[in-house]
C-alpha cells in the first residue's frame, strides 16, 4: 500500500509533463506547418517558454519575410503603375484623341487631295502667266503724271501737222518752189527736209516737257550696242512675212473704193523713173530718219509712260495703235499695229531703243525693196 501511494505523485507529475509536451508540439505544428520540428526540451528549462518560442524564436523570421515580400510586391506594383502613368503622360506618345486624329488623318488627306491638286494647277497656271508677262519686261519708273503724257502727245500731233502741212510748204513757197513743180530729186529732197523737221520738233517737245524731271532713270531713251538683243531682232525679222500677209488681209477687209483715184506716191514715181539720187534720198528717209524719231516718240516715251497706269502688255498694244493711227492709212492699220507690237516687245525686253530702231529700219527697207521689184 505504501509503495503504491508513494508512486501516485510521481505518476501524476509524469502525466502533467506529458500533457505539457503534447500541447507544445501541437501548437508548433499548427502555427508553422512548413517549418522543421524543433527538438523537445524539458519543461524545467527556464530558457525556453511557450511565449518565447511562439513570439520571438519562430514567428519573427516568418513575419519579417512576409512583410518584406509584401513590401517588395507593393513597391513593384507601384513602380509599374508610376511607369505606366509616366508613359501615358509622355509627350512623345499620342493620347487617345491624337491617336483618333491620326487614324482619321488619311481620310482627311484623301478628301482634301483634289482641292490641293486644284490649287496647285491654279498656282501653276498663274506662275506660267506671270512668267509669260515677265518675258516682255517689267514696268518703268515714270516720274511724271498723265497730264505730262497728254501734253507731250497733243503737242507732237500739232507739230507733226503744222510742220508737214504749213511750215515746210510755206518756206518752199517763199523761196519760190512748189512741190508739184519739183523733179523727182526735188521731191525726194522735200520729203527728207519735212521728215527731219518733224523729227527735230518732236525731240524738242520731249526735251522741253521733260526737262524738269531730270535726271531721268538710266533706262529712259537708252542707246547701247551691249546686250543680248540681236536674237530679238532676228526673231522680229521672221515676222515680216506675217506682217505682209496682214497687209493683204487688211486690203481685202477694207478695199480701196472704185471711185477713189489711184495715185502713185512720190517714192513709187522715183522708183519707176529709176533715179538713183531720188531713190537714195527716199531710202535715207525710210531707213534712217523715220525709224529714229518715231521710235523715240512711240517706244521711247509713250510706251514706258503708259506702264504707270496699266500693265506692260497693255502699254505695248496701246502705243502700237497710236503708232498705226499716226500714219493716216486705214488700209494699213492691222499690219502697222502688229509691227508696233513686235517692236514694243523688243524694246521692253531690251530697254534699249537701238534694237527697235533697227527692226523698224529693216521693215521699211523690206518694203522699199519690195517696191523696187
Automatic annotation (TrEMBL):
Domain CAAX prenyl protease 2/Lysostaphin resistance protein A-like: 280-365
One family name in Pfam for this protein: Rce1-like
Region feature Disordered, mapped onto this chain: 87-106
Biological process terms in GO annotation: CAAX-box protein maturation
Entry keyword set: Membrane, Transmembrane, Transmembrane helix
InterPro entries associated with the record: Rce1/LyrA-like_dom
GO molecular function: endopeptidase activity
Keyword Phosphoprotein: no
Transmembrane segments: 148-168, 188-206, 277-297, 333-350
Domain of life: Eukaryota
The protein, known as: CAAX prenyl protease 2/Lysostaphin resistance protein A-like domain-containing protein
Source organism per UniProt: Salvia splendens (Scarlet sage)
Amino acid at each position: 500500500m505504501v509503495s503504491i501511494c508513494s508512486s501516485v505523485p510521481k505518476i501524476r507529475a509524469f502525466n502533467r509533463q506529458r500533457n505539457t509536451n503534447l500541447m507544445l508540439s501541437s501548437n508548433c505544428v499548427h502555427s508553422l506547418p512548413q517549418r522543421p520540428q524543433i527538438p523537445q526540451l524539458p519543461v524545467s528549462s527556464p530558457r525556453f517558454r511557450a511565449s518565447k518560442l511562439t513570439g520571438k524564436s519562430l514567428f519573427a523570421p516568418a513575419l519579417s519575410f512576409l512583410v518584406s515580400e509584401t513590401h517588395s510586391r507593393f513597391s513593384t506594383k507601384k513602380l509599374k503603375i508610376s511607369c505606366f502613368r509616366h508613359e501615358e503622360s509622355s509627350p512623345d506618345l499620342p493620347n487617345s484623341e491624337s491617336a483618333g486624329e491620326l487614324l482619321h488623318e488619311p481620310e482627311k488627306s484623301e478628301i482634301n487631295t483634289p482641292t490641293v491638286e486644284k490649287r496647285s494647277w491654279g498656282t501653276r497656271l498663274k506662275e506660267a502667266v506671270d512668267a509669260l508677262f515677265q518675258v516682255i519686261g517689267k514696268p518703268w519708273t515714270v516720274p511724271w503724271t498723265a497730264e505730262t503724257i497728254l501734253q507731250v502727245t497733243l503737242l507732237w500731233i500739232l507739230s507733226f501737222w503744222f510742220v508737214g502741212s504749213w511750215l515746210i510748204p510755206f518756206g518752199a513757197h517763199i523761196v519760190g518752189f512748189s512741190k508739184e513743180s519739183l523733179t523727182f530729186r526735188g521731191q525726194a529732197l522735200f520729203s527728207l527736209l519735212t521728215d527731219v523737221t518733224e523729227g527735230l520738233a518732236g525731240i524738242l517737245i520731249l526735251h522741253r516737257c521733260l526737262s524738269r524731271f531730270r535726271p531721268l532713270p538710266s533706262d529712259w531713251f537708252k542707246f547701247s550696242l551691249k546686250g543680248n538683243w540681236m536674237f530679238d531682232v532676228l526673231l522680229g525679222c521672221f515676222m515680216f512675212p506675217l506682217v505682209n500677209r496682214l497687209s493683204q488681209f487688211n486690203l481685202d477687209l477694207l478695199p480701196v473704193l472704185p471711185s477713189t483715184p489711184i495715185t502713185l506716191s512720190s517714192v513709187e514715181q522715183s522708183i519707176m523713173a529709176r533715179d538713183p539720187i531720188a531713190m537714195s534720198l527716199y531710202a535715207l528717209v525710210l531707213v534712217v530718219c523715220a525709224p529714229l524719231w518715231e521710235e523715240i516718240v512711240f517706244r521711247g516715251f509713250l510706251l514706258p509712260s503708259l506702264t504707270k497706269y496699266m500693265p506692260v502688255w497693255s502699254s505695248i498694244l496701246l502705243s502700237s495703235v497710236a503708232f498705226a493711227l499716226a500714219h493716216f492709212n486705214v488700209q494699213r492699220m492691222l499690219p502697222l499695229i502688229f509691227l508696233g507690237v513686235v517692236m514694243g516687245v523688243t524694246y521692253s525686253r531690251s530697254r534699249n531703243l537701238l534694237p527697235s530702231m533697227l527692226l523698224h529700219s529693216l521693215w521699211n527697207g523690206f518694203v522699199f525693196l519690195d517696191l523696187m521689184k
